[in-house]
Structure formats: structure tokens, C-alpha cells
Design brief:
The structure is a single chain. With about 230 residues, the protein is an alpha/beta fold. It has a single domain, classed as 3-Layer(aba) Sandwich (Rossmann fold). Helix content is about 25%, strand content about 30%. The protein is built from 6 helices and 13 strands. The strands form 2 sheets. A 9-stranded mixed beta sheet has the order 2-1-3-4-13-12-11-8-9. Strands 6-5-7-10 form a 4-stranded mixed beta sheet, with helices on one face. A hairpin with a 3-residue loop joins strand 11 and strand 12. Helix 1 crosses helix 6. The radius of gyration is 16 Å and the shape is globular.
């Protein structure tokens, strides 16, 4: 599955920090690249140095916030490499599910755990107003892009009514509404996409969201990191 990149080709790096679901994410990126006729190597790696040569970076994630944060920090040099390439160099970044949650200041799943601090906010448990709604929130739901986010290049083609696949019990609560790109409803509205500058994250799984998810991944693979 892991492709050895040709140095002359663009490269999209998927970070392997033991969070699982890597095969599905890599395969979906490969499919999205083929469908959109995009020439990019898809590399799954735990090597922080790979981020320096990457054109784009993807951080997937399934499981508990604290476990994922610990796993990411356990990779030698990875946090510094992320800051250097995403925040300083402005490379396009996509966080998926817990990978998106890790963009926040902290998560409070089984205690308080520090995130990357890229999107001011906190990851809190879902609390649907309808007690009949089960946690975790699992399955398909409608994604509603916010009016001022509909022009975001990565969300192009995802209109109100697009369905995406979710598996989660927690969601990010952003300190600034301008960082929220899209919401969904599950006994109350919750954030399903966030973005700032060259960074974007989705609570849903684009790799499991069929046509809408492949469209989003294709958009990301073409994205230059600018929101307008």
C-alpha cells in the first residue's frame, strides 16, 4: 500500500501514528487522485522527516483523543515537523475525525488532554437533546456548509444535503465561529468541518462517504492552501 515516492512527483503524506484506518484513507486518496487525474504519490509513514518533502499532509484518527494525542507525540520529531510544515510553511493539511479533533486546544475524553492548539476550542462529548439518540453517533448524516464557507475550495460541490459517514462520541466546540465551516444535526447542531488558512478538518470520514467524500479528497489534493 505504501508507495515509494518519485522525487519528481508531488507527494501526499498520511501520518501513521497507530490510530488505525490508514489503509482506507490511503486507498480513498488514491481513488480520488485517479478520478480527478491528479498526479501525486500517496505515502503512509511514521517518519517525521517525510513531512519536509511532502506537498500535502493528512492526519487521520480513530479512537480516544488522549490515546491519539499520546501516539502522535510518541513519534520522534513529529510535532515539530507538523508545526514547521503546516503552520510555518503553509502546506495544505487535512485532519480526519480524531485527526481533526487534535487540531483543537484540548480534548476532555477520559480526562483533559492537550491538542495541537491550531484551532482554538475544546473537544467535548456529544449531548443530543433527544435521549433516544444513541452515542456514539454512527452512520450517515447531512452536512450543512455555513454560508460564508461555501466558497472554500475543499468543500466545492458539497451542498446542503450532502451525506457523510460519522463514527464519534465527541465533537469540537470552536472558540471562534469563523473557524466553523460546516455543521450537522444530531439532537442539536455540532461542528463537522473546521478550517483556518491552509488547514481543514472533518469530523466525518470522507474515505467512507462515497461520492461526496471522494469529491472532498479530490478537492484537497488540488488545493494550494488558500481559502479564496
Amino acid at each position: 500500500m505504501t508507495e515509494i515516492p518519485n522525487q519528481t512527483r508531488p507527494e501526499t503524506v498520511v501520518i501513521d501514528y497507530g490510530s488505525g484506518n490508514l489503509r482506507s484513507v490511503a486507498k480513498a486518496l488514491e481513488r480520488a487522485a485517479r478520478d480527478a487525474d491528479i498526479d501525486t504519490a500517496i505515502t503512509v509513514t511514521a517518519d517525521a522527516a517525510a513531512l519536509d518533502r511532502a506537498d500535502r499532509i493528512v492526519l487521520p484518527g480513530v479512537g480516544a483523543f488522549g490515546d491519539c494525542a499520546t501516539g502522535l507525540r510518541a513519534l520522534p520529531g513529529m510535532i515539530d515537523a507538523l508545526d514547521r510544515n503546516v503552520r510555518e510553511r503553509g502546506k495544505p493539511f487535512l485532519g480526519i475525525c480524531v485527526g481533526m479533533q487534535l487540531m483543537a486546544d484540548r480534548g476532555i475524553e477520559h480526562g483533559a488532554h492537550e491538542g495541537l492548539g491550531w484551532i482554538p476550542g475544546e473537544v467535548r462529548p456529544l449531548q443530543p437533546s433527544d435521549p433516544g439518540l444513541k452515542i456514539p453517533h454512527m452512520g450517515w448524516n447531512v452536512v450543512e456548509p455555513h454560508a460564508d464557507a461555501k466558497t472554500h475550495p475543499v468543500l466545492a460541490g458539497l451542498t446542503g444535503g450532502s451525506h457523510a459517514y460519522f463514527v464519534h462520541s465527541y465533537a469540537i466546540v470552536c472558540a471562534h465561529e469563523t473557524d466553523v465551516l460546516a455543521s450537522a444535526d444530531y439532537g442539536g447542531a455540532f461542528t463537522v468541518a473546521v478550517g483556518r488558512n491552509n488547514m481543514i478538518g472533518t469530523q466525518f470520514h470522507p474515505e467512507k462517504s462515497q461520492a461526496a467524500g471522494l469529491r472532498l479528497l479530490g478537492n484537497f489534493l488540488k488545493w494550494d492552501g488558500k481559502t479564496r
